[in-house]
User: Fold this.
Amino acid sequence: MGTPEFPDLGRHCAVGDCKLIDFLPFTCDRCNQVYCLEHRGYIKHQCQKADRLDVTVVICPLCAKGVRLVPEQDPNITWENHVNTECDPSNYERAMKKKKCPAPGCREVLVFSNTIKCRDCLVDHCLKHRFGPDHKCPGPKSLGTSFSFMNLLSRSKKEESKPNPSPPTSTSKWASGFRNVASNIRASAEASMSKLGNEINQAWQTAKDGVGQSSGRGYENGQAEVEQCPQCNAKFSSVTSLVDHVQKVHERSSNRSRGVAKATVDACPKCSRGFLDPVALVEHVERDHGGNSRA
Assistant:
């Protein structure tokens, strides 16, 4: 069997009367034996473990529940375990009872294909009574019954309006606790807002006081402190006015006086060239006239 290059090539069929060498054998997933193409089926090789992975469910006639049979276990043992532990005969009526249309006089059994749920009362009906007037629909539920929180608030208000309240129940205690928490939150919020408003007013007043002090500084006993110019003895109510006065009046006048003053000019004795700086005149004589200033 096989070749020198592939010694494991090919397997014999496990059926005793066959023993055929198959180079592409089949392995049974139940008994893990190797078979040829002809005997690969469970019935062909009479597999003893063909039902090992099968799922068999039996309906109990007492409780109408499904009982799964274990493949490698006796069905009688499985049945006894179910009867002793899980079987509930009261469930038989609930499971086997057929749902019918609730419309008066209708006995039609409701199944998947003929069941319609009313959008107002949310009750299943047959196709014949699917509309509201056909099954006398009471209409949608009221807001108070659908929202328990709104119903609770209305009930608490009614209890408050009564002159002689009844002993507090758990619902009224919860409602009163909820109102107390809400009132506490509101009080704390109002306190924080008032505190914030006071802080803002205080900061605004401080800023205003600072501006008033800077603008009205020097006022004592109803008289303003006077700033005086050191050059012309002019009086000003603030330092800013004094500085503007000095820059506009005295600096401009000094610049004008400088421009009007006559400049002294020195002339060269040899070439009569004029110089404002005597040093420049000396350098000119030494450089151009050989250091001799005689005419």
Observations:
- The chain has a mean pLDDT of 76.
- Residues 155 and 172 are 8 Å apart (CA to CA).
- The helical segments are 75-85, 91-96, 143-146, 148-161, 170-215, 239-260, 278-288.
- The chain is about 40% helix and 10% strand.
